[in-house]
Write a structure and sequence with these properties.
It catalyses: guanosine(10) in tRNA + S-adenosyl-L-methionine = N(2)-methylguanosine(10) in tRNA + S-adenosyl-L-homocysteine + H(+). The chain is α/β, with parallel strands linked by helices. 26% of the residues lie in helices and 25% in strands.
């Protein structure tokens, strides 16, 4: 691993959305490809410019083949708070590292990228001309250059207070772009089969990256819905499967979720979604099954479990059962028994999920799931805990002024034992999260109050 201050430095240009999700994504992907973060690299905050120490250019390229949070990566040749500092930094960069890209047989161009400010063409040309001291010997080619260099200027985060001079200036050789185009090409708007809660494409890929999904992994979604998370995992070469309690969703039957369409067509199903993207070979199957009563034989199967459980807002939280209390000790129902749908408390759902992950994930496998929270009452102690799983990251996405959901990433660090199944009852985390069983009521009480407030304002 390159140490801070060494010459294996890269500049990462980040997208300015899902800010909390960016660092866990980059850290997860670097660990997949053999890199890691140093402590000094964890203070980026909201800035789009991150300086990383990465062992090799190959790792940098592999990182960009996966990330949807980063736009581009550059080999950093110089950095300063002012033009003079940048030029001094560039003059101290080893010439032997520059020469392979500047020799007379090469072609190149220099681009200008500014954040939070627009420059005139005259200002851009002036900045490029100021780099004449660099030993460029090749020819300029603006259409198809062999090498692209960039000057990147950071004018801060406040669009209402743009400084005259940049806070930081960077110069580097462009290495690769990230996978931002996946957000558009996999957009739910273009997808063959969708539901009321189909996961946004960008977030699906972020979840897959947090889970460190790799080629030939086996990925499972216990609340599979229309399979959006399976699609993202299959895109990166994983074999995918899932379950859902909703028969109609699994079989693509019933009313359509798409506007101006009443019923689902004969080929609207999860398999068709993967076929749409050329990923059908990675599709194993989906089953109608109850997440509270897993039908899996004991064992470790999955490299990752990635899921978006229902919160009781647009999709109900349900489990199968009987209206009558089933006596203890009776596990099997008569063949004639038809299970009915019962409510499924959020706290029970998440502890069942954690237990299932602890039992079925391989050691080092990851569980990535969404946890809905009522913001005024939320504390970190409310995140469900399990002795076999270590919390890796916890990122917030706001849903409303008073509600949010948190993307929780956990890694299996210990083999499951029977005594671990009920250890959450001894945890301090259990009682606080039970209060979130009423998340639906709190969510809609806030909506009702907001509507009443808006109506009051409109009548005044």
């Amino acid at each position: 691993m390159a140490l801070p201050g060494s010459l294996n430095r890269y500049l990462l240009l980040m997208a300015q959305e899902h800010l909390e999700f960016r660092l866990p994504e980059i850290k997860s992907l670097l660990s997949v490809f053999g890199g890691q973060f140093t402590n000094s690299q964890e203070t980026y905050g909201k800035s789009p410019f991150w300086i990383l120490n990465i062992p090799s250019e190959d790792i940098a390229r592999n990182l960009m083949k996966r990330t949807v949070c980063a736009k581009s990566i550059f080999e950093l040749w110089g950095h300063g708070k002012s033009p003079e500092e940048l030029y001094t930094s560039l003059k101290s960069y080893p010439v032997e590292k520059m020469v392979p890209y500047l020799h007379s047989d090469s072609t190149y161009k220099i681009k200008i990228h500014t954040f939070n400010k627009t420059l005139t063409q005259e200002e851009k040309v002036k900045r490029i001309d100021a780099l004449e001291f660099l030993p460029f010997q090749g020819k300029v080619n603006l259409k198809k250059p062999q090498h692209v260099f960039s000057i990147l200027e950071d004018y801060g985060l406040d669009p209402n207070s743009i400084p005259k001079d940049p806070h930081n200036i960077y110069f580097g050789r462009w290495i690769a772009d990230g996978q931002r185009e996946l957000i558009e090409s996999y957009s739910v708007k273009k997808r063959h089969f969708i539901g009321n809660t189909s996961m946004d494409a960008g977030l699906s890929f972020i979840m897959t990256n947090h889970a460190k999904v790799k080629e030939n992994d086996l990925v499972f979604d216990p609340f599979v819905g229309t399979g959006g998370l399976l699609i993202a995992s299959a895109h990166f070469g994983a074999y995918v499967c899932g379950t859902d309690i909703d028969y109609n969703t699994v079989h693509g039957l019933g009313k359509a979720s798409r506007k101006n369409q009443k019923w689902r067509g004969p080929d609207e199903n999860i398999r068709a979604n993967l076929r749409q993207y050329g990923l059908e070979k990675f599709y194993l199957d989906v089953l109608v099954s109850d997440a509270s009563k897993p039908s899996w034989r004991k064992g470790t199967y999955f490299d990752a479990i990635i899921t978006d459980p229902p919160y009781g807002i647009r999709e109900s939280t349900r489990r199968s059962g009987s209206q009558k209390e089933i006596p203890k000790g009776i596990e099997k129902c008569p063949e004639s028994h038809v299970p009915v749908s019962l409510s499924y408390h959020l706290s029970d759902m998440f502890f069942d999920l954690l237990n299932f992950a602890a039992e079925t994930l391989v050691l080092g496998g990851r569980l990535v799931y969404w946890l809905p929270v009522y913001t005024p009452e939320y504390t970190e102690e409310m995140v469900p805990w399990h002795p076999c799983l270590r919390l890796i990251s916890n990122c917030e996405q706001k849903l409303s002024s008073h509600t949010a959901r948190r993307l929780i990433t956990m890694e299996k660090v210990k083999e499951f034992e029977n005594r671990d199944k009920y250890s959450h009852l001894l945890s301090d985390h259990f009682l606080p999260y039970q209060g979130h069983n009423s998340f639906r009521e709190k969510y809609f009480s806030g909506v009702t109050k907001r509507i009443a407030k808006e109506e009051k304002c409109s009548h005044e």
